[in-house]
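B., you asked whether I could sanity-check this one before it goes into the benchmark set. Here's the sequence:
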Amino acid sequence: MYTRITVEPGKLSGMPCIRGLRISVATVVDMVASGMSWEEIASELPDLEPADIPEALHFAADAVRYRTLEIPMTHEAAHR
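And here's what the prediction gave me:
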């Protein structure tokens, strides 16, 4: 399903990366979440290709969809 995401045990401690590069999916997602434009991201990471970003975002969405993350409940939410 994902053609641009790779996982190699010896690279970035096995974190999902973009096309075998030392650019993690998490780095790309964080840059997008920070509001960086494609031009800004490309300036920082010139080896990225335009199609890498949407695939990284889809991969991240699937990762959290199928994995439970520990998020502490706020005091207000606990009393609803």
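One thing to flag: The chain is about 40% helix and 5% strand. Otherwise nothing jumped out at me.
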